[in-house]
Automatic annotation (TrEMBL):
UniProt cross-references to SMART domains, sorted A to Z: AAA
Keywords assigned: ATP-binding, Nucleotide-binding, Transport
The keyword Repeat is assigned to this record: no
Organism: Crystallibacter crystallopoietes
Phylogenetic placement of the source organism: Bacteria, Bacillati, Actinomycetota, Actinomycetes, Micrococcales
Protein name per Swiss-Prot or TrEMBL: Iron complex transport system ATP-binding protein
Pfam families: ABC_tran
Length: 262
């Protein structure tokens, strides 16, 4: 298995604030990671580095066997699929669903564009179909519900056939059925041998899809625990990450946590 991510002592400092504090992290091909931690823990910052959008202040970030700082990020970024609220906000209101997905391949296919257009459209359609959005092709992105938007964003992130897929809170704003649908789809993606390495950021244990293999818990920029998911998602580790005594339940790969009653 090759290294998808290899972080050594990665820190991000802004003014007097340490957003990430000397993070060591290895993600191998085929692994499915979930990153959990309270608001402000540094999860999005970690994902920004993994997505080659941000340079560490200190330390080394290896991404797809390249090193940030000595590689052209514009060559690296198309190899990484990223879905986040910040990216969704940049989508023009009137852009149609099909276009939102197809345009993710521009800049990858480059100068022989015309030959790729039909192929790109077919791939975009296939992905939208897989994510249950095939009847929305001509709908403006802005008119979609939150759950529909999330699925379009994931299809977009997969469009360029990335080697690494980064999802920053894909469950945010979804209702119960929407969340369960997403968890099921992500669980299927996790089980797909052809799928890229996955890193999912969430606040909620209920959103951890069965089949995810590894977890990292962050608190105030530092790693509380990381490794195989069953070893990391324990009452002790979660209570420490969220700074609150928690009661944890696991059933068939689904997790729930509530405050411990004294
Ligand atoms: N440019 C900056 N200058 C100072 N502080 C910053 C800057 N950018 C981010 N931060 C702070 O860094 C911390 C980590 O932010 P980050 O977005 O990575 O957290 P997060 O774990 O994704 O939080 P959330 O769960 O709320 O999305 C936050 O406290 C944030 O306010
Ligand atoms: Mg965040």
């Amino acid at each position: 298995m090759s290294d998808v991510l290899e972080f050594a002592g990665v820190s991000v400092v802004r003014g007097r604030k340490t957003l990430l504090d000397s993070v060591d992290w290895q993600v191998k091909d085929g692994e499915r990671w979930v990153i959990l931690g309270p608001n402000g823990a540094g999860k999005t910052t970690l994902l920004q580095i993994a997505g080659a959008r941000l340079h560490p202040t200190k330390g080394e970030a290896g991404i797809l066997e390249e090193t940030m700082g000595s590689v052209d990020v514009f060559e690296l970024r198309p190899r990484i699929g990223l879905a986040s609220a910040a990216l969704a906000n940049q989508i023009p209101e009137h852009e149609t669903v099909l276009n939102v997905v197809v345009t993710a391949s521009y800049g990858v296919t480059g100068r022989w564009r015309e030959q790729y257009e039909k192929m790109d459209e077919r791939r975009a359609f296939r992905l939208l179909n897989q994510w249950g959005m095939s009847t929305f092709l001509n709908r403006p992105f802005a008119t979609l519900s939150e759950g529909e938007r999330k699925r379009v964003q994931i299809a977009r992130a997969l469009m360029a056939d990335p080697e690494l897929l980064l999802l920053d809170e894909p469950g945010a704003g979804l209702d119960l059925a929407g969340r369960e649908d997403l968890v099921q789809r992500l669980s299927e993606l996790a089980a797909d041998d052809e799928a890229p390495a996955l890193v999912l950021v969430t606040h909620h244990l209920e959103e951890v899809p069965p089949g995810f293999t590894h977890a990292m818990l962050l608190r105030e920029g530092g790693v509380v625990a990381q490794g195989p998911i069953a070893e990391v998602l324990t009452e002790e580790n979660l209570s420490s990450a969220f700074d609150m005594p928690l009661e944890l339940k696991e059933d068939g790969g689904r997790y729930t946590a509530v405050a411990r009653r004294s």
